[in-house]
Fold these 2 entries.
Entry 1:
Amino acid sequence: MRFVDIIEKKKNKKELTDDEIQFWIDGVVDGSIPDYQTSALLMAIVLNSMTDHETAKLADAMKNSGHVMDLSDIEGIKADKHSTGGVGDKTSLALGPIISACGLKLAKMSGRGLGHTGGTLDKLESIEGFNVFLKEEDFKKQVREIGFAIMGQTGELVPADKKLYALRDVTATVDSIPLIASSIMSKKLASGSDTILLDVKYGEGAFMHTIDDAKKLARAMINIGKKLGKDTRAMITDMNQPLGNTIGNALEVREAIETVRGEGPKDFTELVLTAGEIMLMQGKIAKDKNEARKMLNDAINSGKAFDQLKKMVAYQGGNVDQIENPTLLPKAKFITEMKSKNEGYIENIHSMNLGILSMKLGGGRERKEDDINYAVGLEMKVKKGDKVKKGDPLCLVYHDKKLDNEWIESFYHTFTYSKEKTKPIAIVEEILQ
Ligand code: URA
């Protein structure tokens, strides 16, 4: 096989065979195919796309490029979820304790934040002593014993994706649905769970800006899951405003704790409960939505979900006192209230901008090697559709350094106002399976 013929074929909009895709991924991993040839094929895929069959083969070949976690010695159905990333997204922190209190096992590998989106691992590390670097055996033991664990993805999983993603990043070939779908799904498949729930976000704070693109991506990932025999479902959710009220690591941990205790914000709680319903049905714990919702509410109201959260933090070496009493979580030096300079109904909240502003406070990373300040961030006081007067609070800013004029100016550009009442938006737009 000559790789140049494979590039030529995709350039001419032809379907690649399974063997050709396997040859490519093998060559990426062993280094026998040079980056310039892979880059050419990536660009041909961006321009001419891939069929569902090719996309599933690509995901499968990538999954098998490294270690594949075997969770089969843990009894019961093992669930996993993945979010395409958003601003204020702390879903796994609240969902894990609640669904595991209902008897479903969650074995979750998570990532770190970069740019305007936060990462679950960084949020967890705002809890003193919390260890995200578990050995596979300890991870499995924890899932077996308490029903859930969250750890960082190990280096041995899906090496093909690491190489391809680094190349895509510098060759303008990230934004291709088959490439995104196979990249995400290869990692989910290699994590070894039986079911996968995808939270595909749309809006200006998300990877997919339009609902149509979010649905296309969700469909592409569901197709991969189906072809490879995994129950894969997706929620299409709104990212046109931050999820919940907080952005920033310790602040989001606090909000997840409140949600697990039944005192979380309405939109975030609804997202968590909807995800929980789908996952309990996938895991055959509940027969329908209503039964699932009741179980989830019982887990919250009985305090079982909160106990699960404390157990998980204790298992992973974290300070449980901070979960019992979130005022012990890292605290910023200053809290500044930002007041509205306008009046009217909040029409738009530029969530990506808020993510960037939180990052600039030190709460996120501009570059992979940057350190994080766990204490800083934003606590929103308004949602889209709220009516505000001049001087009403828009947000509390938690910061360690003086806010400069550029930051403050950018903050005020985050909001647009309307004289007319604006329609509130549903957090979960659609469920696909
Ligand atoms: N996230 C991934 O893991 N891969 C992509 O290609 C895009 C987003």
Note: The longest strand covers residues 195-202.
Entry 2:
Amino acid sequence: MNSNQELVNYLLGTGYASEKIAKAVMKIDRADFVPEQLKQNAYIDSPLPIGHGQTISAPGVVTFMTRLLDVQEGMTVLEVGAGSGYQAAVLAELVGEKGKVITIERVAELVERAKANCMRAGYKNIEFIHSDGTKGHPAKAPYERIIVTAAARSVPKALEEQLAEGGKLVIPVGSSYRQDLLLIQKLKGELQVEKTMPVVFVPLIGEE
Ligand code: SAH
């Protein structure tokens, strides 16, 4: 695949991308979120290295997670693992100007890179936080939606607590080489956990 249009057509073909998500992905050029020397690979459905041992997730995975998260206009979404900022930009497009994305990243240089990438793409509704995302971001909790884009050994307690009633949390949980992507919903204070598909993410490194 050599263009964003081809990538979007492919994502629609997988069945993971709704029309709404496809439209969002179409507006955001993935080439702007990958290192210069990898731009020719930007439209392939594969993760790519972004430095510091980290990766931008494969577009198919971004789409699948975004679909599970069920983001609506005007919502506030918390992301743990800003990386390149690509997933944050997709979420920012979906929540719109009245909504907000708060994204946490532990590597300082990646915070700056993600910020620059998202600014260049025109998103002003994203707040970037340099911190340990396993603790969430209590200042603005609770959140209607939380997405974790790094592999957790278990679901961090802080994220469970900061999830709003009726809220949804999407998180890969498992070992360092294979995880189950979980969709967790908080209903009447209880967490309902649904296993979706197996995934491979870089590790979530934090205190919890
Ligand atoms: N969503 C990103 C991909 C993330 S890769 C994108 O669209 O490009 C996972 C990211 O999680 C890495 O950048 C890594 O540094 C970060 N990370 C790992 N543990 C973390 C933690 N405890 N808090 C915040 N970020 C973390």
Note: DSSP finds six helices and nine strands in the chain.
